[in-house]
Amino acid sequence: MSNIIEVKDLYKSFKNRKGEVKVLKGTSFRVQEGSIFALLGSNGAGKTTAVRILATLSGADSGDAFVCGFDVSKDAHKARECFSLTGQYAAVDEMLTGRENLKLVAEFRRLKNYKSRIDELLEMFSLTEAADKLVKTYSGGMRRKADIAMSLLGDPKIIFLDEPTTGLDPQSRIALWGIIKSLKAQGKTIFLTTQYLEEAEKLADFVAVLDGGIIVAEGTVEELKAAFKNIEVSEYENEMPTLEDVFLSIVSKKAVKKEADKNEN
User: Fold this and answer.
1) pLDDT: is 175 or 62 the higher one?
2) Helix or strand or coil: residue 234?
3) pTM, rounded to two decimals
4) Which domain does 254 fall in, by range?
5) Does residue 162 sit in the same domain as residue 60?
């Protein structure tokens, strides 16, 4: 498979009252077309910053990023035509019905003959019965489904899902996992950021761990487990580590090294 996303040496800093905060410090990774790619990291690791740069919502200080072969800094308009973005919070209008939200997006995108596509998406996300009810009556899981359905209008090749299951109950999370898998089966590329390690373990074809502004580990779930098979995971011998065990081992080792370097200075 070819790479549909390529990121090389991204740097990004922000200024606050305390001065400059370096978020990305040479981040590099690739995403294969038709795969589910999970970018993992603790709060503040830079996951959303990386997504915002790829989605042309923010510019990098330096480095290169390509989406569908287009440089996101030089060909932002062309890059936007091949992806959709769903953020951490559902971007739906509560005072409109589910169907009206979809219609609004379709008209904004100037899509033609969109009614059948809206019906198809409502059915895909099990929202047909609630389609003509106000979104303010929807549960959190239903709002998230409507949000993702809206992002699929226009048939994007890449779907950016920035922590899509944050705040959802377990049943809604599992339902959304099924939808993500079905999107991959349709040939979509899914770029997923999440703090839920179980989520990445269940869904991802490839995982990259972002910590301290750089990618500190990457590979398939099985490759990462094999690489860290000797870490202590439980009282049971010969038990393979979970992805959560691997992640915590990586992050804790980085934290220990950082503290040691600080003490030496």
Assistant:
1) 62
2) coil
3) 0.83
4) 3-82+157-167+185-264
5) yes
